[in-house]
Structure formats: C-alpha cells, structure tokens
User: Fold these one by one.
Assistant:
Number 1:
Amino acid sequence: MSKLDLNQLHRSFSELSRDSVTLLANHAEERTYGSGSVIFEGDGSADEFFVIRSGIVALEMPSPGRDALVVETLGPGELLGVSWAFPPYRWNWRATARGDVDLVAFDAAGVRDAVKGDPVLRTALLEAVATEAVDRLHATRMRLLDIYRAAS
Amino acid sequence: MTTTAPTSVIEQMLPSVFSVVARTDETSDTVTLRVQPQAEALTEFAPGQFSMLYAFGVGEAPISISGDPAFSGFLEYTIRSVGAVTEALTDLGRGDLLGVRGPYGVGWPLDAAHGGDLLVVAGGIGLAPLRPVVLSALAQRERFNSVSLIYGARTPADLLYKFQLHEWRSRFAIDVEVTVDRGDSEWMGDVGVVTQLLNRVQFDPPHTTAMVCGPEVMMRAAARQLQSHGIATADLAVSLERNMQCGIGLCGHCQLSTHLLCRDGPVVSYETAEPWMEVAEL
C-alpha cells in the first residue's frame, strides 16, 4: 500500500511519518468481502484488525434459533476490531459484510511486534483503538437511554 | 381593573375549522394528517413553524407543520400519540374536523444555508419539523452545495416517511443516511446512533448550516459532534419544545430563559440555546 493511502485511511494515521507508514504497510493488505461474508467469528483469535475503506460491516452476536443480533454497524474510515490490541486477543463479536466491503487488513501479531521499536506508531495505533472505543462507549450509552421511546 | 384584549389577539386565539382530507399511518403511534380549511384561505408557512391543533372537546397541542411549503391547498401534520390531545388527534380520519391556529413561531434558517452545504440531522419524531426543510431544499436544489439528511430512529418500525426516504435517496439529489438503535431480521441498514453517520456524508464545515431536531439529549449530543467536526455554533440551529399554550407570546408557559419559544422559537440558534440546554429543569 502507498504511504498516501495509509495516511488517509484512518484519522489517527494522518500524522504518521514515512517510516511508520512503511512499517505499517509491511503488515497490510487490501481485501474485498462479498455481501454476507463473515470477516471474523466471535471468540476467534484476533490475529488481524481492519480499517474499512467502503461498505458497511455489521458486528453481531449469533443467536441459536433466530437471526443474529446486530449490535452495531461500522462504515468507511472506521476501525474494525479492537480486541487485537489487548490480551487475550480474541474477538467478542462476529463481523459480517453488509453488501460488498473493501477494507485494509493488518496482521496483528506483526504490527504488535513492529511497534515495539516505533513508539510514535504505537501511540497512533493505541490512539486509534482508544478513540474508536470511546466513541462506541458514548454511542452505546446514548442507546441505553432509549431516548426515542420517551421523546414526544 | 378589567382589561379587554385587542380584537386581533382574540382572533388569533380562535381556531379555524379544518377537515382531514387524508391520513397516513406512519408508525404504530404516529400519523400524518393532511388537512384543509373549511372556509378561510391558507396562510403560507415557513419550514419549522408550528400550529396549535385543537381536538374538539379535548384540548389543544402545538404540532409542527410537516408538509411541503410549496403546496398551497392543504397543510400536513405528523402527530405522535403521547397524551390525551394527541391521542384524539391521531384518532381522526378522513372527513373529521379539527381546529387549527397558526402558523406560529420562527422557522429554520434555510436562507442562511444558500450557497453552502446543508446538513439536516433528525432523531425520531424530530424528522417531522425538518421534512419541509428537505422538501424546500429539493425544490431549490441549485441554491445549495451538498444537501445531506442523517436520520436516526428507535427501530425500523419507528421510521417516519419510509417511502419518501427511499424516494429522496433514489433521486441522488441529496445524501440520505438512516440508522436505528435496534435492527430486526429484515433491516439491512445501519445500527447505531445518528451521530455515527456524520462521517458518511460530505460537508465543508466552515460553509455548512446544520439543522438538528429530536429529543434534547440527542440534539445536545449531535450539536457537540457537529462542533467537533468544525461547524460553528452560530451555524447550528435546533428546534426546542416546551409547554406552548397560547402560541402568540402572551401566556408565558413556554418561557425558556429570556425567550418565549412559541414566539421566539421553536427554532433557535444553538449559540443561544446551548447554555440553556445545560441547565437542569430550565
């Protein structure tokens, strides 16, 4: 992947240096998933993480005897997968493509190893994970309020 | 001392009799009524204005006009049943009569958006007061750069104007993004809060006018997100709801700080509204 592509891929990557981008690019590959494809399974090993370039991905929980429960959808520019960053490195939700999805996949173990020598990249990646996690926490709290039920 | 109200004020407090000419069931508790006056000519309205609707024998409620300002023969109101008056109004059908006063209040700053980007953010029933904005923007599309609507509802069954959302999206004249808090087995759209859709639409923050309507918690969260995207507070407008009774700035029931919302609102700049919306019980 080119430097330009990675710098624009995610808001936390925009300030990365050429060296950091090169290092990250060594562990990245572009992928396309067709509609309905499972990108990763819940409880699977979180050995990759992704940034969505186009399309929508549903985070869902399979439920025996009924349709999977969709907890959230993610779109372009969003980080797919945060479990890769912290032990025990296992997914909690299944990720399914809703329509065709283009994304960039990163080898999590390779990136974890590579950032040991690049504190700037390590900070950027942790910032990306933390920012997404905080945004999703706020969003989840808003949904817990169930504001539309009470609204008039 | 006895005072006599001016005739004009008395006239303003008298409802005109309208009849329902069409009824659309939007959701399990929300309907859109198309109404026509029995005798009087219709007054033009601005997107965002409201009327006082009178369910005879029950009472009055302030309801935003949700129809197209370009259609002069009738008015439309989208009403959610949340109390005695709105329950009576949502029970009305074709041929039934109701009282209408208005239109009242200050509408959305549509002119301020001309030449720039228009971003409409709606939550739940909050799409109703913004529907005239979307319809007006479509009618004069060349006056704006990008026009985007992002809309959030509780479930797919709670979405208003489903057919029209599809139509607006299919015209490619505006970006339409829709999300729900909880999907169902049929729902293939987004799941999440409305502010998460901000990254899906194109707008140039310094040249964007944003109009936000929904529950106040949602409006506050949306306004903060819009501010963090770089939209100036002065370019943000919200529609506030309080206990409007007279509709003409006399009774004071809808006072919010220094404003009587029936007269000085319901649409106000977020620059004005922001400090009020942080005060408990104001």
Note: The CA atoms of residues 138 and 144 of chain A lie 10 Å apart.
Number 2:
Amino acid sequence: MANRILFINPFKGEIFDQPIKAFIEKEKRSDTDVEVVSLKRGPEHLEYHYYEALTLVDTLKTIKHAEKEGYDAAVIGCFYDPGLREAREITNSIVITAPAEAAMHIATTLGHQFSIIVGREKWIPKMHENVVNYGFKEKLASFKSVGLGVHDFHRDEAETAKRLKAAAKEAVEQDRAEVVILGCTIQFGFYKELQGYLGVPVIDAILAAFKYAEFLIELRKRFGWGHSKVYGYESPPEAEIQAWGLEAQYGAKE
Amino acid sequence: MTSRILWINPIGSDDFDQPIQAFLETGKHPETQISVVSLKRGPLHLEYHYYEALILADTLHRVKQGENEGYDAAVIGCFYDPGLREAREITDRLVVTAPAEASMHIAATLGHRFSIIVGRKKWIPQMHENVVKYGFEDRLASFKSVELGVYDFQRDLAETAKRLKAAAKEAVEEDLAEVIILGCTAQFGFYKELQEDLGVPVIDAILAPLKYAEFLIEIKNRFGWSQSKRYGYEGPPKEEITKWNLEKQYGFEGIWT
C-alpha cells in the first residue's frame, strides 16, 4: 500500500506548493504519494517569531486533519520546525518530522561538525535553540548568513547560488564544517551544485525532511515504532477539548 | 535497485550469524540483500574493552573488503559501535553505521528521553561515553542493567523477557523514559512483546541499524549524501599505507591495493 505524506508549507501563499511538489516527486520512493499544501490565511513567510505564533493553530489543525484522512506522515515545511512538539502531542497514527530535526540527524551521521546556512542573521538565535534542543550543540561548526529573505532565494538564482557558495566555502574552510545544511526550505534546488563545488555533503532541508518521513513511516509500519505517547507527547484529553468548546472557539471545524 | 548490506558480528564466532540473518530478513526492505559475517579469530563477545581493542583491525579490514566487494553499506553489529569512526575514515563508496548511533537517532525522534537496557553494569561507562559523543546526553533518562551476559540472553528466553520487562518498566515509570533501547544486539527477538507490554517504542539494536543503513543508502544514492571526507573522516593516504607495508604486517594483503 502506498505511503501518504503531507508536506505543509506553514504560511499563506501557494506559490511554493507546486515547485516543492515537483522537487519532491523526483526523489520520492515509488510507493510514496505526496501532497503539498499551504495555509489559507496568515503571514507569507515566518521570518518573525510573531508570524510563527500566528500560524501554529492552523498548522496543527491541518495535521490533525491529515491524520484523520489517513496520511502516514506529515512534514512541517519550515526550518524553524514550528509546532513539531505539539503536532506529535495531538496525533497517534501519523509520524511527524520537520526540516531542522531531520537535517541535523543526517548531518551528524555524515560528519562530526556541520554548519547551517541561513537567509538572515535574524533567524540564528531561534535556530540555535533548536540545535541545542536536538542535542547537537557540540556538533555545530557555525551559522552563516547570506543576507537574503525567504522570498529572495529564487528571485535571482545566480546571485543566490553565488552567496550560498561563498558562505558554505567559508563554513568548510574556516569553521571546519564537514557537512553543510541549507537552513531554509526555500533554498531548494541549490544543494547539488553546491555539493559538487564544495566536496562535502550539502543537505537540502526539504529532501532531508521528506526522506526522514519515509524512514519514520517504515519504522512505524514494520516495527510499531511511532512517537511515544507517554510523558512529553501524551495527548490532551479529548473530553477536555470538547468540554471547553475549543473547536468552536478556534474555528477548527470546517 | 537492489542494495547490499554487509552485517558484521565483530567477534570470533559465527554462532549468531544464522539467527541474526534470519531476524534481519524479517525487517529488511524487499530490495535489500543482507550478508551476515563474523570474524575468523578473536574473542567470542566484546564485554571487555580489551576484547574490543583486539577485534578492531579485523573489523575495519572486513568493512574495507566489503567496500571492495561492492556493498552499499556496512553495519558493525555491536552496541559499543566499535570502529565506527575508523570505518568511515577508510571508506568512500559505502556508508557505515552501527547499533547505538542508529538507535539513539531514532529514539530521540520518537520521544524526548530514552533509557538503554544493557546486560551488565560493566557496559555502562563506555556506552555512556557514546551517548555523550552522539549528542544525546540530555536525552538519556537512564541505563538499566539486567545482569545477563551476551550469551545469556538467548539461553532462558522466559527469564530474559522477565528481566527486560522489569528493567524497562522501571525505566518508564521511575526514570520517565519515553522510549526504550535494547542496548545489545544479542537482545534480538524481545522488542515486540516488550513494546506491547509497556506501551512505548522499544528499539531493537539490530533492526535500528538495518533500517538506518537502508536510509543512508537511499540518501547517498539519490543525493550523494554520504560521510564527509573532509577533516574527521579524511582517509589515510594509500601511498603511506603501502610504503609502511601495513598490509603485510597485519596480514591483510590485497585490501588496500
């Protein structure tokens, strides 16, 4: 039976849905089906923490829906991994992953130290928290910024490639990164050229999360290894959610 | 496309080769082929660090030979992950993984904290070093020992299951582990029953690296993501190995040339 993965762009605007779907389609396993969706309202990028806070409720709603529709996995498509913990908390029969988590697990397996190439310096403090949270503080060579916002990466691709190359080369040569992670999903399409240029693995944030999702599905289906539902990911009681009328208050019913 | 995985039991006995091969067959992807091998000499288990030191050369040469034979991945089948760093250093075309690394990456994704159930307390200090090295110190709820040696696990299965259950239950209830890792490859065959009993994921130390190896092969073949050859895993120069006559000195002619 096919494995169904929902890739969520957790912001408003469908402009990336088709390009990302096409990018994933080329690399998915033959027995995987993928859908890419974005949110129907909200900010158009998540460069500010306030924007991320706004999108959480819709992202989580989308994931809960996906679980009900029988998806096997959901990917939260932003390198801040927004709502990852909460998504695992509210689901049982679906596995969830996100780009930063997946990319760092891969990177620390492929080399001792990695660097993360971000768009703007603004992003670094929060992403650094995630590095620490996932346990990889000692494995971080550096963050590098290329001074481009989310919507700039595909505006002038030659310029983006040039800046990514310069930043990644510095990360490898000066900071001794053995692996480079592209720290924004919208940096898709650049990893292969960069990797050829640098001679070290360059981890694409979309492909990493997507392949990790396929891997987690395999573990869950074969061995029953899904997210643990004791302690941290223990779900809120449905009775309480009903009694408080949360669905109506937050417009969760469509 | 078929992927070939070489599973190495890094001990001088083939006692576990057949049972582990049979167990791996139950968990592998249909396109994966697995060969299980062990070493031709050496200690019969690795419960002492001295034994591990003895087997390193043979294990590394078996990995290198695996690369020469066209395998896509090698798994070093002991939860101490012996020689993992060195194996990655000396190879280019195959990916290498091992049980502790693979199990911890999986466990840290499935829950916040995990406990590792080992055979004997003796094992804990070195395994703890690996937890720290891999970055998961803050994710470790506890180590639990069931006081059984490597060869005891499969001797009295009912007794082993009983002890594993008691230890894992304690880990979940008292140490707040959300995921359990079985910290010895010879503990194979117990995870499913334990998992049903406990209601948390119980990671088997054979299936975890098998699946991680398949995953690493996939991302290598598709994206060219394999161990970085800069810095830490930079390979030793062949000319030096030849000039120093290492193959002859260690009895591994043909591995490097």
Note: The two ends of chain A are 29 Å apart (CA to CA).
